Amino acid sequence: MPPNAKQDAAVIENTGDQKPNEILIEDKLYDVTGFKHPGGGLIKFFQGHGDASEVFREMHPGERGYKFLKSLPKREAPESVLAVSRPEKYKKWHANYAKWRQQLVEEGWFEHDISHQIYRQAELVVMHVVGFYLLTLGSMALWPLAVLILGIAQGRCGWYMHELGHQSGFK
């Protein structure tokens, strides 16, 4: 997040043009009243202030996110909201980010790799099997190691599920 974003958010709130239940995405204000975002509270950060366009594009690749946006009530964002949501001082920051992301695309970081998916799934299975095997040996001395391995495996499961939630596991 760019520096001073909270200060800018306060300025936006004082304009009165963007309602607290609206989120700005690609020059439109979407009413998200009552919407429970499956990604958690991130959406609340942008409600009533800020521009969520970049975050939306990064977290919702493909058609699915845009299809959902069409179902929400929306209106064109007034110039006063756009001016405050995209201050001049952040243009360099956004340009650097876009350049860095394009470099990652050119280097192949966003290309689907089935071998990586197979590796990730095998890693999870092996870690769970080893952890549970150590528990079944009956040695209290091995329990801390087993619990450590199983804890790491569970953390890795969480990250893998998160990636799959953003459709980064499959093309």
Written description of the protein model:
- By secondary structure, this protein is mostly helical.
- It contains 8 helices and 3 strands, in the order αββαααβαααα.
- It has helices spanning 5-15, 42-46, 53-59, 63-71, 79-85, 91-106, 114-136, 143-165, and strands at residues 22-25, 28-31, 74-76.
- A hairpin with a 2-residue loop joins strand 1 (22-25) and strand 2 (28-31).
- The longest helix is centred in the C-terminal third of the chain and has 23 residues, at 114-136.
- It is elongated, with a radius of gyration of 22 Å.
- The two termini are 28 Å apart.
- Tell me the strand order in the biggest sheet: 1-2-3
Number of helices, where a helix is a run of at least 4 consecutive DSSP H or I residues: 8
What does the overall shape look like?
A: elongated
- The count of DSSP E runs of length 2 or more, i.e. the number of strands, is 3
The main β sheet shows up as: 3 strands, antiparallel
User: Proportion of β residues?
Assistant: 5-15%
**What is the terminal separation in angstroms?**
28 Å
- Spatial extent as radius of gyration: 22 Å
DSSP helix fraction = 55-70%
